[in-house]
């Protein structure tokens, strides 16, 4: 996933094989990572506890695991 922190609005889009997330939270103290997980959980209709950030805590490209049902 490609993340844009500090955006004007929150949004999830799919462009080809890339999922793009825009969050309003700033990229400081993990606020953007928390916002990404919250936004993705809401978009998928899953609880936040089912998502785990595996890679990319300090990068725009992130790998997120989704727990099976």
Structure overview:
By secondary structure, the chain is α+β, with helices and mostly antiparallel strands. It has a single domain (about 1-65), classed as YggU-like (Conserved Hypothetical Protein Mth637, Chain: A), CATH 3.30.1200. The chain is built from one helix and five strands. The chain has one helix spanning about 30-45; strands spanning about 1-5, 10-15, 20, 50-55, 65. Strands 1-3-2 form a three-stranded mixed beta sheet. A two-stranded antiparallel sheet has the order 4-5. A hairpin with a 2-residue loop joins strand 2 (about 10-15) and strand 3 (about 20). The model has no long low-confidence stretch (mean pLDDT about 95).
Q: Return the string of H and E elements.
A: EEEHEE
Query: Which blocks of ≥5 consecutive residues have pLDDT under 50?
Result: none
Question: What's the Cα radius of gyration?
Answer: 11 Å
CATH architecture: 2-Layer Sandwich
What is the CATH topology assignment?
Conserved Hypothetical Protein Mth637, Chain: A
How many strands, what sense, and barrel or not for the largest sheet? 3 strands, mixed
Binned strand content: 25-35%
Q: Could you name the CATH homologous superfamily?
A: YggU-like
> What is the mean pLDDT?
96
In the CATH scheme, the class would be Alpha Beta
Q: State the distance separating the first and last CA atoms.
A: 21 Å
User: Which strand order spans the largest sheet, edge to edge or round the barrel?
Assistant: 1-3-2
Instruction: Write down the domain tally.
Output: 1
- Helix tally equals 1
The total of beta strands comes to 5
Shape: globular
Helicity level, as a percent range?
10-25%
């Amino acid at each position: 996933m490609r993340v844009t922190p500090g955006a004007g609005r929150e949004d999830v889009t799919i462009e080809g094989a890339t999922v793009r997330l825009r969050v309003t939270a700033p990229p400081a103290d993990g606020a953007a990572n928390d916002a990404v997980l919250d936004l993705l959980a809401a978009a998928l209709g899953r609880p936040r506890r089912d998502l785990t950030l595996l890679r990319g805590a300090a990068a725009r490209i992130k790998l997120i695991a989704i727990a099976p049902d």
